[in-house]
Amino acid sequence: MTEDGAHSDLLDDLSASIPYIRFLGLVFERRGDEITALMPYKPDLIGNPLLPALHGGATGAFLEITGVAQLLSDTALADAARGELPDDYAPAMPRPIDITFDYLRSGKPRDTYARAIVQRRGRRVANVRIEAWQDARGKLIAAAHGNFLLGAAG
Amino acid sequence: MTDLEGRMTGGETTPDGEGVALTGLPHSAAMGMRLVSTGKGEATLMLPYSEALVGDVATGVLGGGAITALLDTCCGTAVFVAGDKGIASTATLDLRIDYMRPATPGRAVQAHAECYRVTRSVAFVRAVAWTETRDRPVATASAAFILERKPEKEKTA
After folding, report:
1. What does the alpha-carbon distance between residue A78 and residue A94 come to, in Å, rounded to a whole number?
2. Who's near B53: CB < 8 A, 6+ residues apart?
3. A47 FRET partner, CA 20 to 30 A, in A90, A117, B67, B94?
């Protein structure tokens, strides 16, 4: 298996094997070292049926998981650069320490996208900013920034 | 029960124990969240453990996002029952979550929120989520909600 193959599988595995990611219906795409996450619209994501608007919790979870996916991808790319990844390659899941969500616009009942920017990645902690949008990349519906604990240490 | 509370639960009143499903909030309902009780500016919600919400297959711990969604819903509910009858609807402005420890696998997550200040435009809320006891939090939250007010009645001459 090529380095890139094992790495691509990692993101497919994420959507396939983690129940909560499947519950939200998230899909990840990688271009170079950048992950774009997609949350396809489904009625289960609605919080306010009168507007209607996406549930802030669904949008929040989407932002958080996008941060985790980008950090996992970065870990895999760095590990792959050091040598071929084994078929059962499974890096430790980054865990959120704290996150602040800013809700900027009401989430419409349509597909949502998100990307994460790793502002600093240390040995134990990574600081990440994540942005979500729908119709236009420049019109964010929500943004988040938070710290994630890397590796298995708790 | 307030209008808004009724809208969240589909009009069902809150019994003791397991609470009522939040049928008025499709995403919360899909997750299986239940409204356990409300007081003035206070709400208690419960999220039963569910395999579908697991974020770490190796441990069976629920996804952090599921706790975020529970705390967001709990905070919003506390705003609804804050006793301000002029509030027509509310939306989360910002929400900060601190994750203290993993939710114990197999156990329901409880959440309690307190709306401690309501201004004309904004409500401030804090909340805590736990699986074992409330003094061993899984996560705490601090949030601000923007308020949409009902149109004021025209003054009579």
Report:
1. 15
2. A19, A20, A23, B31, B32, B47, B62, B63, B66
3. A117
Q: Find all residues with CB under 8 Å of A81, minimum gap 6, and list them.
A: A3
Which domains does chain A carry?
3-149 (3.10.129.10)
Task: Look at A103 and B91 and tell me if their CB atoms are within 8 Å.
Answer: yes
B62 contacts in A (CB within 8 Å)? 20
Q: Nearest residue on chain B to A43, judged by CA atoms? A: B26
Chain A residue with the nearest C-alpha to that of B98: A98
CB nearest to A19's CB, from B30, B51, B96? B51
Which of B65, B76, B96 lies closest to A20 in CB terms?
B65
Domains of chain B: 3-149 (3.10.129.10)
Give phi and psi for B126, each to the nearest 5. -130, 155
pLDDT, tens digit (0-9, with 9 covering 90-100), for A4-57: 555 667 777 788 889 999 999 999 999 999 999 999 999 999 998 988 999 999
Which stretches of B22-121 are assigned E, i.e. beta strand?
34-39, 42-47, 54-56, 61-62, 87-99, 109-118
Identify whether the C-beta of residue A133 lies closer than 8 Å to the C-beta of residue A108: no
Residues in chain A: 154
CA-closest candidate to residue A100, choices A53, A51, A67: A67
Q: How would residue A1 be classed by pLDDT, with cut points 50, 70 and 90?
A: very low
Structure tokens at A38: 């997609």
